[in-house]
Amino acid sequence: MSDSGPHDFRDHKAHMQWQSEKNEWMKQNKLVPSIPLDMAGGSKASSSSVVMQKALSNPLVPAGMLATTGCLVGMLVSALRRQNSMRTQWFMRGRIFFQGLTVVAMVTGAWVAGNAHAGPSMKPVLGKQNGNNA
């Protein structure tokens, strides 16, 4: 069996024959592992509880999102009223500031979570480099 199928997909019968041969070959050679039974059912948690859990684990991200949205709405209202262009400019700058803080909070949260879940072999040991004692 070749890795690439027939390049002329107008011949549907030949294409389907190639697909069935490919599927049989993959089943025989066990190239694709089956999904473990404990993962096949999916998550039993509701989406609202997952969102709440994520928000509580890193509260700076939802706060930054709210601040960014507030600045965006304020900028829109201020721009539509066309009364004070300086206020509109402050809302634009505030949106950029809060959006940057939100990204920093997300990256920091991911870094902290990654370090918290790293096993003892993954954590750096002070004074050791390349397996040698310094």
UniProtKB/TrEMBL annotation:
Gene Ontology annotations of biological process type: mitochondrial respirasome assembly
Domain of life from the UniProt record: Eukaryota
UniProt-listed PROSITE patterns: HIG1 (PS51503)
Compartments, as annotated in UniProt: Mitochondrion membrane
Entry keywords, A to Z: Membrane, Transmembrane, Transmembrane helix
InterPro entries linked to this entry: Hypoxia_induced_domain, RCF1
GO cellular component terms given for this protein: mitochondrial membrane; mitochondrion
PANTHER family membership: HIG1 DOMAIN FAMILY MEMBER 2A, HYPOXIA-INDUCBILE GENE 1 HIG1 -RELATED
Full protein name: HIG1 domain-containing protein
Highest classification ranks of the organism: Eukaryota, Metazoa, Ecdysozoa, Nematoda, Chromadorea
Annotated gene: WBGene00091134
